[in-house]
Structure formats: C-alpha cells, structure tokens
Amino acid sequence: MSDSVIEIKELSKSYPGSEKREQVLENIQFNIKKGETISILGQSGCGKSTLLNLIGGFETPDKGSVNFNGEPVTEPGRKSVMLFQHYGLLPWRSALKNVELGIEDLPLSTGDRKKRALHYLDMVGLADKADRFPRHLSGGMQQRVAIARALAIEPELLLMDEPFGALDTFNRYYLQDELLKIQKEAKTTVVLVTHDIDEAIYLSDRVMVMRSNPGHIQKEIKIDSYKPRDRSSDDFQYYRKMILEEFQLASSKPPIEYNI
Ligand SMILES: Nc1ncnc2c1ncn2[C@@H]1O[C@H](COP(=O)(O)OP(=O)(O)OP(=O)(O)O)[C@@H](O)[C@H]1O
Questions:
Q1: Ligand 1 atom index nearest CA of 52
Q2: Neighbours of 123 (CB within 10 A)
Q3: I need a labelling partner for 167 at 20 to 30 A (CA). Which of 3, 63, 85, 238 fits?
Q4: What are the boundaries of the signal sequence (predicted)?
Q5: Which letter does DSSP use for residue 35 in this model?
Q6: Model confidence over 74-122: pLDDT tens digits?
Q7: What superfamily would CATH give domain 1-74+193-260?
C-alpha cells in the first residue's frame, strides 16, 4: 500500500483566455507523505496557487486527479484547511471570535472552544489582542489571526498560500519556527506556496521548483538536513545556490581556481 497522503497524477488545468484557453498547468505529478512539508516555489503567474487550489478541491482539473488518503478530491474537505494570501477575517468579529469560527461546528463546549482558540492566539503572540476587531490590528497581526484560525482546526493537511508574505522578518521567522513545532507534534502535512527561497529551504522536506507556460514542475529538490535548520550554514547556502541556479539567478562568475 502507498504511504502517500496525497497523490497527484497527470494534472492539467486551463482557463478561458482572451482568444483561446490558457494552459496554466500541464502534467503535474508527485506524491506527498504524511507529515511532509512540501514547498511550491516559482515566479509569479506560474500556477502555484492554481495547483494548491486543485489539491484543496477548490478547483477541478481538466485532466488528471488528486487523491487524499486514497479518495479523489472533488471539493474542499474537513481534514484539510487552506490559508489564503488574503486574510479573510470577518470585520464584525473579534480576533478570538474569528479564530473560533473554524471550530464552531466541532463538538466542543463553549469553554473548550474558547480555550482552544486562545491557545492558538497565544501561539501567534496575540493572546492580549483577543478582544480586538480586525480594523484595530495591523496587517501582520490580521494575518497571524488567520494563521491561528487555520491551526485551531488542527487539520491533517494544511495548505498555505504565501502565509508569511505580509509579515516583517522577525514575525516571519517566529511563525516559521512555530509551524515547524506544530508540524512535528501533530504530524501535519503541509503544502506551502512561496516566492521566498529561504522560507522554502527552512521549512521543507522537498521543494518543487515550478516554471511557467504552461506551469510544470521543473525540478524536485530534497532538502536533506535536520530541522530546525541554520540559515547561515553551508548546507543552507548549498541548497540556496542550487535553487538560484534553477532560476538562472546564481552568479555567473567562474568558480575560484586554487593553484597549488
Ligand atoms: N480563476 C481564474 N480564471 C482565469 N485565469 C486564472 C484563474 N486563476 C488563475 N488564472 C491564471 O492562471 C495563471 C496562474 O495563476 P496562479 O494564481 O495560479 O499563479 P501563481 O504562480 O500563484 O501567481 P502569484 O505568485 O502571482 O500568486 C495566471 O495567468 C492567472 O491569470
């Protein structure tokens, strides 16, 4: 039996264009194991969000399939959560009530629901802002509330579309570490769309490098080092260079030659 949680097979997707249909994704194929973190890295418009939406069941493919625990994904399911780029907070609800939103249909008492929501608000460093409304929070804080809401659901599969993009470096690093801890504890499977090469290396077990026209996986890079990783280590620089080379962004200077 396969040990994959997600199986993506020969996935293709097009959208109506101005003259003909625009082929956005072509023949995407890979599997994801339980507890793995996969980053999808690529330039703007290469189809990363479309791929994530297909995995989450928010879009349907033209060809191919996505299976989650052996079942075809045809619509968004209870065991996966998508954290979108835009925060999607309800302006008339406090931070706490926004976090509770995702767990309102679970069989929890009012007290337990509040406790769980506060736990995750605390995790993103906002326990003291629980009663604030979104308009009284900064953009970064709003995104942290959205992250807390997604985590509170304690999903099996967490789909994240540039979740830390709007945060300053310190908050980004802090939440990346929190994600690593949660992921390790709960064995959550994570698929992360990002533009950020360092974020992909820091968090992932494998990085899918995508190229566009039509969107396809150009290279799969296994990040073979223990977590948490040291961003200044030689290993880290090695992977950074490898990925930069995939995007032809690495320095074109010839290597230094040592003559003895
Ligand atoms: N619902 C839609 N209808 C029509 N075209 C779409 C739709 N969604 C995405 N596209 C097109 O598909 C292509 C890929 O978009 P997608 O958002 O998946 O890229 P991306 O790599 O996530 O980009 P970014 O990094 O800028 O968010 C783009 O050309 C976009 O215009």
A1: 18
A2: 19
A3: 238
A4: none
A5: T
A6: 999 888 999 876 678 999 999 999 999 989 989 999 999 999 999 999 9
A7: P-loop containing nucleotide triphosphate hydrolases (3.40.50.300)
